[in-house]
Amino acid sequence: MSSLPHYAKGEVIKGFGRGSKELGIPTANYPEDVVNNLPENFAKGIYCGFASVDNGAVHKMVISIGWNPTYGNTTKSMETHIMNMNEGDFYGKELKIVILNYIRDEVKFTTIEALIETIHSDIKYADEELNKPEYEKYRSDNFFKA
Question: Choosing from 79, 87, 113, 128, which is the catalytic residue?
């Protein structure tokens, strides 16, 4: 993907409330202005990279960018799941991410169980992929320190 790596930052806002409650996989959501700032050719889909909240520790993450076809959203969103971060909600805090690798396209699932299973598979893939040396340098990128 020619748009990668892609850096984004913005305030965490309330999303649809499905990540934690329905799926058991909490997500941090960006406001519309951050979503609209994606490059025009940025493909919708599932990606992985690194994330930091309020210049804190840098964690692996997966992010869904698009319309969440399983739910039929009419607004494009960026929903970030930060791996191994159990600090509760962080609405109003600054979320910085670097998107490094495309995992897959968005898919409309016929069951929530199938969606959850695939998200867990995405997380496992990202956890392994982001250990590669070519990605490790991004964990200490100055972007996360400023």
Answer: 79
40: three-class secondary structure by DSSP? coil
* Closest alpha carbon to 99 in 145, 45, 18, 33: 45
Tell me the three state secondary structure of residue 61: strand
| Known catalytic residue at 79 | yes
How many Å apart are CA 19 and CA 128, to the nearest integer?
22
Q: Which tens digits make up the pLDDT trace of 32-79?
A: 999 999 998 899 999 999 999 999 999 999 999 998 767 767 788 999
What CATH code is assigned to 6-134? 2.40.30.30
Chain center to CA of 69: 16
Contact (CB, 8 A) for 6 and 65: no
Amino acid at 63: I
Q: Structure tokens of 45?
A: 């889909």
- Whether the model clears a pTM of 0.85, i.e. scores above it, the answer is yes
The pair of three-digit structure tokens given for residue 64, joined into one six-digit string:
């869904």
Number of H helices and number of E strands within the chain? 3, 6
